[in-house]
Amino acid sequence: MNALPRVALTLMIASVPGALFAQEPEIEVLLPAPASRATEAPFTRTAGLLRSPPMNDLMRSGFPARIRYKIERWAVGGWADDLRATREWTLIVRYDQLGGVFKVVRVFRETATPLGESATIAGADSIVARLTRTPMPPPRRGERSYYTLGIELEMLSLGDLDELENWLKGELQPAVRGDRNPGTALTRGIRTLVVRLLGGEKRRYEARSPTFTP
Question: Does position 64 have pLDDT exceeding 70, yes or no?
Answer without folding.
Answer: yes
